[in-house]
Amino acid sequence: MALKNVLVTGCSSGIGLAIAARLAKDEQKRFKVYATMRNLSKQEALVQAAEECVGETLEIKQLDVCSEESIKDCVNDIPDRKVDILVSNAGIGLIGPIECQSIDEMKTVMDTNFFGLVRLLKEILPDMKRRKDGHIVIISSVMGIQGILFNDVYSASKFAVEGFCESLAIQALKFKLQLSLIEPGPVITEFERKVFEDGMKMDPSGVDDETANMFTDIYLKNYKSVFQSLGQTAEDVAEHTLKVILAENPPFRHQTNNLYTPLTTLKYADPNGDLPIDTFYKMVFQHDKIFNASLNFIKLLRWRSTRSFDLGKT
Ligand SMILES: NC(=O)c1ccc[n+]([C@@H]2O[C@H](COP(=O)([O-])OP(=O)(O)OC[C@H]3O[C@@H](n4cnc5c(N)ncnc54)[C@H](OP(=O)(O)O)[C@@H]3O)[C@@H](O)[C@H]2O)c1
Fold this sequence. Notes:
Elements: E1 4-8, H1 14-24, E2 31-37, H2 44-49, E3 58-62, H3 68-76, E4 85-88, H4 103-113, H5 115-131, E5 135-139, H6 152-174, E6 178-183, H7 190-201, H8 209-230, H9 234-246, E7 253-255, H10 261-269, H11 274-286, H12 288-313
Helix pairs in contact: 1-9, 3-5, 4-6, 7-8, 8-12, 11-12
Protein name: Retinol dehydrogenase
Keywords: Lipid metabolism, Oxidoreductase
GO biological process, one term: estrogen biosynthetic process
């Protein structure tokens, strides 16, 4: 495989950082990684994760997906503007009742998660089409397949990404370009912490008591245990992304979390769309004790399997 230039967005932390480090450290040196972030003062964690690669297989550059100018400047700085693989990863979350969120906050989510991808492609797609070569990898989410309680706007932004890509994929095929949506479930990153802290700070005065209680007593109360039971590491998602990049025929959709797949399968099982909504409703409002017991059971199984794996190694 010839050396591939990879541009990754949102590499200051989490999944973007893990993907940039994993590709830069590739033993076969198949990638030159342009790891980008909007704020270069946050590069220390990436430098630490892939120190030996900096200036070799890894270059760190500024790129804000909300600024066309910064995208253009970054791409112009890459030799021959040649991006073989784009990993569109930068994203932000938003949780809570819509009554407590301003339209401006919602627009920022759409501007980053959806229009961020559109801006990148407006700059990079024409070159890929001309070369009839390129792979566009997008870090979407299981919430791009199925909405979750109190994630209305975030989920809408990922649905927008998925619809956009489904449409574009048909045209891309004509130019021999690949498009792949990576769909993680919960991943333990800064995202989880930031979203939870913002949720805790939310002013509930604009919403009725029943909704406010639902958000604090059900959603926020269970938030951490969902991540602890079902959460993956960013490094795990990076391994999945590498496999998709290296695949001879990369899939259009790739879910990274086997524990979550039974839930997304509900979406595909019922064309009327009632099955997943009904199941989530019952899980949250009627069978919450069973739901919590299942999460604890999964947590225990995962802890035991890690423990036996560790014991096996020594
Ligand atoms: N964590 C999860 O549970 C989960 C699950 C499914 C999908 N995802 C998706 O995975 C992607 C990465 O999230 P993560 O979990 O790794 O979260 P993270 O650790 O918070 O990383 C998000 C990255 O995006 C960057 N970013 C935000 N706005 C940006 C902008 N305007 N321009 C450039 N970069 C920007 C952040 O930079 P700053 O440090 O400057 O803010 C950060 O580097 C997101 O698209 C997210 O929707 C996450």
